Amino acid sequence: MLAVTACGDDDFENEPRPAVPIQITGVITEERLTVSPNKFGAGPIVLTIANQTDGAHTVSLEGEGIQERVGPVSPEGTATIQKALKQGQYVVKAGSDQATDEEIRPATVVVGEPRDSASDELLLP
């Protein structure tokens, strides 16, 4: 009357969760863009950039096949880039639609070995 069947027992793999996203902060000033920390392990990040200049700027993250762009970011505003980064070197740039005498110096980010899985972390979404 009642039949019992196996439900996917041969196809299920318990994949580890990705690493916990880390918060990276950055600031755009008239001279340069700084990012902190600028060295960390591969995995998901949340990069929040604050614009401390008098003009609007577009922010871009480039490297290892990634070209992510947000903005323009208003003066005293913020922008966020969420991305999973592989091992390698990345450049974070701030650009403007207006021609300027001096370019804002970009920040370099070095991404190392992958961070540990979040499988053993409690209270994660």
Q: What is the alpha-carbon Rg in Å?
A: 20 Å
- Any idea what the CATH architecture is? Sandwich
CATH class: Mainly Beta
This entry's quaternary arrangement is single chain
What does the average pLDDT come to? 85
Distance between the termini: 41 Å
**Helix segment tally:** 0
Which segments are poorly predicted (pLDDT under 50) over 5 or more consecutive residues? none
**Might you state the CATH topology name?**
Immunoglobulin-like
Fourth CATH level, the homologous superfamily? Cupredoxins -  blue copper proteins
Describe it:
0% of the residues lie in helices and 50% in strands. Strands 1, 2, 3, 4, 5, 6, 7 and 8 form an eight-stranded mixed beta sheet that branches. The model has no long low-confidence stretch (mean pLDDT 85). It has a single domain (22-114), classed as Cupredoxins -  blue copper proteins (Immunoglobulin-like, Sandwich), CATH 2.60.40. It has strands at residues 22-28, 33-36, 39-51, 57-63, 66-73, 78-85, 88-95, 107-114. It is built from no helices and eight strands. With 125 residues, it is mostly beta strands.
